[in-house]
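Worked example 3. Consider a protein that binds pyridoxal-5'-phosphate.
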Amino acid sequence: MADKKRITTTLSSMPPFEEYVEEIRPLWESHWLSNFGAIHKEFEAELNKYLQCDEISLYDHGHTSIESMIESLGLTGEVITTPFTFASTTHAIVRRGLTPVFADVKADDYTIDPASVEKLITPKTSAILAVHVYGNLCDVDALQDIADKHGLKLLYDAAHAFGVERDGVAAATYGDASMYSFHATKAFHTIEGGAACIHVHGWTPEQNHEFKVMLDQKKNFGTTGKQKYGYVGNNNKMNEFSAAMGVCNLRHLPEYIAARKAAAERYWERLGDVAGLNLCRPKPNVKHNYVYLPVVFDESVFGATRDQVQQALLEDNITCAKYFYPLTNDLECYRGKPGFDVADTPVAAWAADRVLTLPMSSFLTTEDVDRVCDVVLSVPRR
Ligand SMILES: *Cc1c(COP(=O)(O)O)cnc(C)c1O
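Given these inputs, the predicted complex is written out as structure tokens:
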């Protein structure tokens, strides 16, 4: 095992070192390292264009951006959401003093099931917080219909959907607002970072812009002018070094995605027709980002459990992740709280017990993918 090359679940993309150094060189002249500097401004404009947003506000983390949007949109009471996500989505709702109500997911791509959402609406519901899973978009049309019909806000955790488009329309344009994460392990990153994309239905462009300005002020301690603090704000600004990483990574994104695509296609070629595996492949009209390589192992058909597969990979010096597992309605910090019960979301529970995300990055070679697939396919025969 020791002499076998280690293949990891993910590897952060790195722009050429010299290019990053050139990008940050002006900071040594300006001494302007944070607080809405020149690189922040440039990055925000480029990103706004790339994501096709109306308005965007950059953050230190994706998580803080979704918390700030929940607060600033004035959501109250209950928010219908999915447990098949990262802890962040559910924590954001709870930390803002609201009650998450868990809908189940669809069995094909594990995004929130609109039929399940509709059944959970009460007079206390103020919003739906859905999650695009593994780069696969939610059923955005059905969710928008439900939101319109019941007068609910529709928010997306789009941490997995950077660069994803449906029929040329970017993920960030769906719903009222979307959160992006630029954490080091995502398909696109700023080391740590995130963004709030805003396009609230029924608001004028001016209203959406005013909302963006409010988010900008709130993430800077609620500063509304010189020595003026109009909000009880937080400190969630993106710094210039992160913005510079974003500028460089955005420039190289097409190469990163092409490399991921090649790896994903090799995986699909090797594993796509194997009975008992669901690879959550993207729909044909979707421009995908190949951010993860999820495989859901139905042990009754495949002949091995995901834990057996993970163990076999580990023995071959290959790491992979149980992601998303556990469900967020099963997290230790919520145990015993009313409404947190995996039995309410059986499809999500089934998937969380069977999913592995196999190694995926822009550095993965065909040989690496073949090695991973050889091990996966060997497990049922052991
Ligand atoms: C990464 C991630 C987050 C958190 O984003 P940060 O930038 O790390 O705060 C939230 N939701 C999902 C689905 C994620 O994958």
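Take a moment to read the result before moving on. The pocket of pyridoxal-5'-phosphate is lined by residues 61-63, 85-86, 88-89, 131, 157, 159-160, 181, 183, 194 (CB under 6 Å). The first helix runs from residue 17 to 30.
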